[in-house]
Amino acid sequence: MKKWFSWIIKRYTQLKLDKKIALLYTALILIVSVTLTISITHTAGDIILRDRKDLVQQNVNVAKESVETELNTILNTGLGIVVSNAVQNFYTSSATSISDMENIRMLIQMAMDGNSKIELITLFDDSDKSDFFSKSSTARHKATEEIKEHYEDAAETDYYNTRIYYSNTISTSRSNSLTIYFPVYSTERLNQKYGTLAISFRFEMPHISAQKDELNYKLNLIDEKGSYFIADRDIIGKPATFLNNMEKGSNTYVCDNIMYIVSPLEKWNLSMSGQVNIDDVNRTYAHLIITAVIIVAILLALALYIGQQLFGALYAPMYDLLNAMDQIDSNNLNYRLPIAPNAGADQIKLREVFNNMMSRLQEALETIQNKQTIIEKLKFEALQSQIQPHFLYNTLESIHWQALATGNKELSTMVKAMANFYRIVLSNGQDIIPLQKELEHVENYITIQNLRYDNIIEYDIEIPDNLRKYKLPKITLQPLVENAIYHGIRIKEGCHGHIKIFSSQTEEKIEIIVANDGVNPSNEVIERIKALLLSQDISEGYGINNVNKRLQIEFGSSYGLRYEISDSEEKNLLAIITLPPIKD
Question: Which of 76, 110, 177, 459 gives 171 a disulfide partner, CB atoms 3.0 to 4.6 angstroms apart?
């Protein structure tokens, strides 16, 4: 816990100032919102829970009254039969006549026709005089025997010594049945019992629609012993244990997330038990909490948004300045702080001062850069002056004509090539020449080297005519060819080598590639060449370093020289110069 607290403090201290204030503001709003939500929902929840309990009690009472009405209807029917003349005569006559039997049948038939739920009515006594009616004749004998057998098991009531029994086998339909037993007493002789009338009828517990109050009810009937009388089959006859825990005078008990509500049935020695899941009772309460949370969340989000806008407007100038510092640190010296027309006077002043300071700084840097460029050009011109002996060209021309006069053709060819070589070197004082002139310079140089090394150098120049008009600094390709000969072909010790000069072009640039098939270079060699190109020391790798710097001085840092290894199987070394497409 301590580590977590330390980590939170550390993270908080690392936040920006406006984030810290916004976080404290958020925490305060959140605490107030949660406190308010808890207070409102707790008060409203108590009210809703009390109202829900009252509603459940009302619905259980309605279900109880429905059962009482149904039982009382059967009770009145049975009492009407047992005191009828037909039944009294049936038991008092010594010999049962056909008319007595027919009267009873008519009476019982009328009772069954008057109540469609009645399935069996039977009369029986100790001498087993009996008569019965059933809507399913195939089940009459079996049903009658079961009714007699269950008489002793039936529960007593306070209605005229009647008994009541619940069965799931007596009914001739798929519904369960209730059987009410009526003692048949003489209407003339006090306490003289003749027999028993049993009425069996279909019984279903009342159904309370869940849509009425969004609750799911489970109704049971409990007998006077505290056992389930009508309930699910697996608990019929088992004690309703929650009755033992119910406080005296209370009809409500909550246990294991179930709320039990009990309402007694008058004189039937039964009680209606309603069971409701507390989660269902609290569903409205939960809806209230959700609604309150949503409202608080919306208000919280609105408060946070307003706070963020306020803090953002307050700290925006500081973050704009920090962003400007990051831009400058990334060498973006052209960045300027925008000035909004509706900004405050202090913000406008701050931005104007910063922008003016950056403009002066950029002007100073450009001045320094221009001076540095002039210095680099002066160095380049000094290097060029080292290879501009005009008299040498004239001397070579004289030697060429003397060699022709004496018939020394080989000497004449070498001297002529050298003369042409130095003519291009001089170029009438021009530093930038067409690519065609530079290629002629390269050819003269290769001619001289072939005369020197017994024609070991083969070469191809595959440059389109339209590219030969573009310009580049003189003596750009010759140092690359020289490197190819001395560090590639000549190392092969007498073997012939091949140099290929070709090109590629896009709208923005031209690339001239010098490839040779000399000794295959390693990655270490490529890295060493890259280091030489970046070196400020021109004493080492003078040729390629000089070419790269001259190209960048003339055309910018986007152009210059680089070395790569070809993707072909030969893995040739490629010297690639990048030029802008300039003709004039």
Answer: 177
The DSSP symbol for 246 reads S
Q: How far apart are CA 240 and CA 41, in angstroms?
A: 35
In terms of average pLDDT, the best of 82-86, 88-92, 388-392 is 82-86
Whether the Cβ atoms of residue 423 and residue 440 lie closer than 8 Å to each other: no
Q: What tokens appear for 303 in the block?
A: 């408060």
Structure tokens belonging to residue 321? 């300045």
Q: What is the DSSP string of 147-195?
A: HHHTTTTSEE-SSTT-EEEEESSS-SSSS-EEEEEEEEE-SSSTT-EEE
Spatial separation of the C-alpha atoms in residues 416 and 403, rounded to whole Å? 10
Query: Which H helix or E strand runs over 531?
Result: helix 523-534
Average pLDDT value for the chain: 77
Q: Which two tokens stand for residue 311?
A: 């803090």
Output the six-digit token pair for 167.
Answer: 């069965």
Pairing of strands 217-223, 258-265: unpaired
Class of domain 430-579: alpha beta
Q: How many angstroms separate the CA atoms of 475 and 440, rounded?
A: 11
Cβ atoms within 10 Å of 88's Cβ, excluding its own: 18
| Rounded CA separation 323/64 (Å) | 78
Task: Tell whether the model's pLDDT for residue 518 goes beyond 70.
Answer: yes
Task: Retrieve residue 79's tokens.
Answer: 């009492």
Question: Which contiguous run of DSSP H or E holds residue 579?
Answer: strand 573-579
Higher pLDDT, 222 or 289: 222
Whether residue 150 contacts residue 165, with contact meaning beta carbons closer than 8 Å, is answered with: yes
Nearest Cα to 496, choosing from 508, 506, 504, 488? 488
Radius of gyration for the alpha carbons in the chain, expressed in angstroms and rounded:
58
- How far apart are alpha carbons 556 and 546 in whole angstroms? 15
Stated as kind and residue range, the H or E segment containing 515 is strand 510-516
CA distance 498 to 46: 99
CB atoms within 10 A of CB 324: 18
Contact 106, 131 (CB under 8 A): no
Asked if residue 541 lies in contact with residue 571, where contact means CB atoms within 8 angstroms, the answer is no
Q: How far apart are CA 480 and CA 545, in angstroms?
A: 11
CATH number given to 48-281: 3.30.450.220
- Report the candidate in 232, 231, 171, 233 with the shortest Cα–Cα distance to residue 202: 171
Find out whether 178 and 229 touch, Cβ atoms under 8 Å. Answer: no
Quote the CA–CA distance of 389 and 419 in Å, as a whole number. Answer: 12
Strand order in the sheet with 457-462: 457-462, 497-505, 510-516, 573-579, 560-565
- d(Cα 114, Cα 80) in Å, to the nearest integer? 13
Give residue 32's pLDDT.
79
Handedness of CA 178, 184, 187, 190 (dihedral sign): negative
d(CA 88, CA 83): 7
Question: Most confidently modeled of 396-405, 478-487, 529-538?
Answer: 478-487
